[in-house]
Amino acid sequence: MSTQLEQIKTDQLNLGWYAVDEHGVIRYKTDPESTDPNELKSFETVCLTPMVPTAILENVDTGEEKVEISYRVNRRIKTLVIDRETLVNKNKVVGLARYGIAVGSVNSGKVAAFFTEVLGRSESLPRKLSKSSLGWVGTKREYFLPYSDGFVLDNQSDPHVIELIEAFKAKGDRDAWMERMRLLRKHMTVRVAMGASFASPIVSCIGQNPFIMHIWGGSGLGKTLLLKLIMSIWGNPNSTQLVRSLNTTQNALMSQASFLQHIPLAGDELQTIKTRYANYDNLIMDITEGANRGRLGPDGKPIRVLTWRNAFLTCGEEPICKQDSGGGAFARVVEIELLNKYVSDGNELANFLADNYGFAAQEFITELMRPVALGGYDLSVIYRDYFGKLMSDGTLNEKQAGAGALIMAADFIASVRFWPGEPELTADDMMPFLKSADTVDVTERAYKAVAGMVVQYSANFAEEPKEAWGRWDGNEVYILKSVLSERMLKMGFDWEACKKKWKNKGYIRTGRDGRMQHYVSICGHPAYCICFVMPKDPSESEELTEHNGEIPF
Prior knowledge:
- This protein is of the alpha/beta class.
- It folds into 3 domains: 3-131, no CATH class; 165-292 and 300-439, Rossmann fold (3-Layer(aba) Sandwich); 443-539.
- It has 21 helices and 22 strands.
- The strands form 6 sheets. It has a 5-stranded mixed β-sheet with strand order 6-5-4-7-10.
- Strand 18 (470-473) and strand 19 form a beta hairpin.
- Helix 6 (188-199) crosses helix 15, helix 13 (360-369) packs across helix 15 and helix 14 crosses helix 15.
- The radius of gyration is 32 Å and the shape is elongated.
- The chain starts with a helix and ends in an 8-residue tail after the last helix.
């Protein structure tokens, strides 16, 4: 029997009638005919694997307890963290067999009884505070996992968790990484992308919902490399746990987000899941809600809702938002289109990042932890300042301005800490990466799409059309109601959702009675139509006529 297990048994545990030795766990029996209750007559084997509980882990988020046990298999001491409920239930404790512990249906009841009695007797066992996720602990910004001591992960027996924690370890030359980033940050796309990565732990501090930053562009421009670059802030960018493929289920993606909690989730190759979605709206809305839907378990009890407050960093060959995407999806995404290369030798940069990473995040978190009274940052004040600057010209959607302000606030703190002397990001720097309120507004996009459709199929509005869709009347077009609804649906828009705003904005003209449908003649036949007002002819705009018909640019 190992010294470690022997020491644990004698100093921290009250084993009662149980004993643990090199043969496993045994339970002594007394002689029922003896007048001395302490007289031992025989013993029975409980388990052939030597094992004892070594600590109680209490989750600070849920209050649930898990037990750390040490056991010996193949002459090696191993540690395992298991739900307390599992250890004391004869039907569930058989699950320990997957870790090499000799428990099965024959002795599961005895093993459960062993843990029930020993855990009940052992008040002196060390108690540790634990979490099932990374990121901030509590709301005071005093602890942040995996960088703070005093807390342990109660799911550390999961090999994926072990691999992810390993990925956060720094490697290489810190100063070389900082200098390389200083040069690359002269490219605004790189700087904004880094700002999104730094912004992830600030999301919850400001009380905002998660946002997505999506990098897209043609092949060979360095989309995946940029994703790895901004994740080298946190750790090993080549780890499949730190930069993962998006070719996974939505539930798996949410589980990963919940574990990372306030650390960015990076996903590569968005197009690999294209066949699962008509568009990406559902994915966007689900992950930016910050919580999954409530579900019931097999026992009929509610399963704990997973939550997260971080940034999602993705890349792919196409935009994540399409023409037919809803306004909510547009508002939650910051898109970076790569048009040109930002580095001359991508392979050299990839090799550099493979050898140098993981320095900036811990130092950045330390900056965020510093109290305001001791010279720390008041994140709310910084955020509101940038938010106000972005909203000042009145063209941005509020959610877009919120995501932009988060990125700018994070960039400001990172710039002061790591790259002093760098010019501060301005609203003009950030605006090209954000969408205007008109772009976010689905009714505006629908109006432009229908106007384009009228021009594209202008032959169907002629006096003698092959297929009658309506007719022109000056700058207005009478479109058959059935045609308009059908064509809008094919383009991903809904007439019923747009009609009120179109009416208020003057995009459709109503009749004298206020009704939207007009009873007019189309090709000599009466029909119900919508009177669609086309955009003003640009050739008639003041900007062009003032220059005698010459384009002033």
